Amino acid sequence: xxxxSFSLGGLTKGPNxxxxxxxxxxxxxxxxxFGMKNSKFLRVSLLLNASNxxxxxxxxxxxxxxxxxxxxxxxxxxxxxxxxxxxxxILWQELGLNxxxxxxxxxxxxxxxxALSGFFVAYCRVQAMVVTLGGSFLYSGLALxxxxxxxxxxxxxxxxxxxxxxxxxxxxxxxxxxxxIILFLVMLLIAYILLHRSxxxxxxxxVGVNPSAAEYSGVNxxxxxxxxxxxxxxxxxxxGVFMTSQFSxxxxxxxxxxLTMSIITACVLGGTLSTGGKGSVIGTAxxxxxxxxxxxxxPLCFNINKQYLDIPxxxxxxxxxxxxxxxxxxxxxxxxxxxxxxxxAGAR
Length: 348
Description:
By secondary structure, the chain is mainly α. The chain is built from 14 helices and four strands. The longest helix has 26 residues, at 44-69.
């Protein structure tokens, strides 16, 4: 039977302007509250240097958004970060490859990890939560296994003594803007074009809204789903390169181990539905920056121990999910509709 085709233009979901404006207001409120508590928070140089601590969340979350829009989830990205780091160290230190050749091969490995999980989700119809949870254990275990091939003790890490590699996170544009911020803006632009300005992005939304309709319209939904996991894996690989360069050129399997909850929170807070079909990279980027500033501002301004920073992030995730569930409840919607009618009648 011949498949029908129709325009997907109606499914192009641009950034949710209203929600994004709310996120901007939250961002401004953070600057006001933290700035009033400690003026050091408002120092541009300090903020730019502190961006190193939360840019990994930004790098990965904007592409995990693609996965979640299709109705999936990716909780393995942190483990892929650690595996990427170790692969770079082994290829450079043990095999003697050029450090940038090692970087390219490590990012390819990260993309293959995403492809493997994407294959099981898309083609074998295994639940994304199960696959990526298993992937998180598998890839972190592989990182430890690969690290054990080195004569260096794992907790010390694999040293990468390369000036060009160190410059990746030490170089500043015009002597002020760290190179990694430029990298984030480039990744954000690429993600925005792919998701909001291309036919590929429309296919992602259509698969998230109705996979059966996507197949009926000629979209290969399985290939689309798998591709989102590959992109997420590549983003995790780039993050692994960044973190390896950032932390004194040391490759460690533990890099990225604490990122998972912040990544998922950034996606959800940014307006991405966990059930799929809705989300934007702009919202996710804003949410990731908000989370990053919380992690930076709490210890600086309120002397909160860094061990407890997952508490506000976890509360934020719960509040957003519960709030969205309540707001979408038919009874709540009906009640709000009645109140609006009463207000309109009273205004007359």
